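Checklist before submission:
- one chain only
- standard amino acids only
- sequence pasted in full

Submission:
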Amino acid sequence: MHIPDGFLSLAISAVTYVISILIVGFSLRKIRGGLDERMIPLTALLTALLTALFFAAQMMNYPIVGGTTAHLLGGAALSLILGPWTGCICMTVILVLQCFLFGDGGITALGANLLTMAIVGVFLPYIIYNATMRVSGSLVLSCALGAFIGDVAAAITAGVLLGLSAPIFQYGLEIAVPAMALNHSVIGAGEAVVTAVLIPLLIKAKPELLSLSPWLGGQGHLEKVNAK
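Returned file contents:
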C-alpha cells in the first residue's frame, strides 16, 4: 500500500501532509495528556514489540496496480491493544523509518501513506471493534471485523488518492480503487485472522499487564475472555 514518489499530484500530497500532521500531532498530545504511570510498562513493552513485528510484516509486500504494493498493515492490532492514539504514533514511526531508511514509500507521498495506514488503518478498526463489541459481545468477531474493514478501507483510501492524481498516476478511480480494494480484501482476510488470534492470546498470556490498558482492561474484555 506504500505509495512511491511521483504517483500523487501536488495538491493531493499537500492536503494529505496537512491532515496527517494535524492528526499525528493531536495523537501525541493525547498520549502526553492521558498516559498515567501505570500505563508506562504496557506502552513501553508492547509498543516496542508490536512496532518491530509490524515493521517486519510490512516489508513483505507484492506489487499491484501501477507500482503500488499490498501487505499486512497491523494497524488494527496496534489500536486495539495500545489504543488508537498510541497506535497512530507507532504506525507513524514504522512508516517514517521505512520511507527514509528503506525507500519503501516516497517522501512526497509520506502524508498520504500516513493518512491511509496510520490514520484510517488505525482509527477505523478501533471504531468498528467497539461498535461490534457492543452489539455482539464477541472479542474474536470484533477484532476480525475491525481488522478486515480497516485494511480494506485504508486500501480504498489509497486508491482514491491515486485515482484523483490522474494523469500523474496512470490509472483513474475506476481502476485504482477496485485494484486496491480487491487485493487488500485478500490481505484483510489474513489480517483479520492474525488479529483475532493475537489479541486473545496476549490477553490470556499477560492479563496482569493488559489489565492496565483502558482499551482492553478498562472495558471488561479481559474478564470476558478469561471467563470462557
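Reviewer check: The chain has a mean pLDDT of 82.
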